[in-house]
């Protein structure tokens, strides 16, 4: 999610940045919309919906952040390729 | 509450305590650099930590003993409302994914150790930097004090608290010893000590949670029974298993406000800046949520406490008491050690972070501008001691609820530094004086609003929620204050820009915010360091 002031090369808004942004934004919508999960049923192994649904969002948001990470990384690598000749200097 | 001392649990507890003490002192030699007499070494562990160490360090830092004690205690007292800690920690990671890598980059280019260093460099304003530093120190102090409360809870349940008649010195002796030891190894090893100890802490915590979440429900007849019993008990005391429509705003604003605040805390930033590269931070945002899962499971222990019919007069004791009642003595000892060590790690990091703030942004900026790195380190080490003694005095002399009140205030204070810090990372449009004005308004509003909240047991500081002006719903004061702060900052910036008020000097460039390890200039700064590449021999994070 490099912001506008960053590198001079390439457009600021790219498809992969938009997708990454949405991935990062989704947990905010789901978690702040408390009305969508404020109920006891359906239960899961006896745990009310309120609790297991929010805990389910831990792995979901993790997955979304991972996707954002991969997208951003890929784009950065592509930009680096474009701006300077390939070199193996970047430690992983 | 307990008759006599639980000997087996105490022996196990002491074993782990001794283990981490030895590790704490040995940590000074771990990954040691050639020139160790500067803040980058003592205060940031040489800025050399890889993905896994950073993960343990941040986990040890953010999920503190107080969290382990307070989250189930909140559930035990009120039910669903206490569960906001889970959405809160879910929201933290997408948020920091956006701004922490930028902070890491610019801090590495310019050798910043604290957030105030950055704010000063970005806006060229010593007063704004001082405001951020003072807020950070004020917010951290009660947090350290609450770690002591966590240790106290464990000691109490083990029977070391003594009775009402015990002389105060004897009663507090175990706590004094624990903190003396902590202070000594933090002084000698710096950030390396909590980094190393965090491994033990987290290993213990994960084991304890895994066992508790399987073993206790079996003992209590499954989750169905647990939630039925807990629901009945809660309805008697006015709590509930769901938040209820009136509490949606409070729940959501608490989650969001706390998420915004978390990485404004100096200790969170210290752990972040100690990492080796920008990638380490991004990668960490994808693995840190494992702790959120653990926190959610931990919160469920509050319901188990209710279902098990445990009665404690102090809600903070619910988790230790549950362990004591449900587990065999030796495993209760392991669980107590997990909580106790869980207090030591963050207390060490917090005192280092507060000490760094004092040294860099008060001592060096205002008292002794020509301080050498060696002098800075000396001052930081001594300040870390002073901060801990202060926290100890706090806990021993003042009422415990005072520490909790200050912690509540700390949270809503620290989020007021968000516009200067995160705003500053993305844009220089905000005027330095506008940021200062917004900060002052947010701090004042938050403090007054919190002071005026009453609860059945307290006349002031009765909670963190209040009616949101204009909206009319009940919501988290910290978030309201933050919105107010942001509005004032934007409005004042327009005014000041129109008046052509002078801008401070910005010493950063756009490229600074994207620099990564290996880029030119990154390795030149922190001054007088040996080649940072020489330290990239961390075995655990091969990628």
Report on the architecture of this protein.
Chain A: It comes from Streptomyces gossypii. Chain A: This is DUF3311 domain-containing protein. Chain A: Keywords: Membrane, Transmembrane, Transmembrane helix. The complex is a heterodimer of chains A (92) and B (543). Chain A has one domain (15-83). Chain A is 58% helix and 0% strand. Chain A is built from two helices and no strands. In chain A, helix 1 runs antiparallel to helix 2 (49-83). Chain B is mainly α and 543 residues long. Chain B has one domain (7-517): Sodium/glucose cotransporter (Up-down Bundle). Helices cover 69% and strands 1% of the residues of chain B. In chain B, strands 1-2 form a two-stranded antiparallel sheet. The N and C termini of chain B lie far apart (51 Å). Chains A and B meet through helix 1 and helix 2 of A and helix 5, helix 10, helix 11, helix 13 and helix 14 of B.
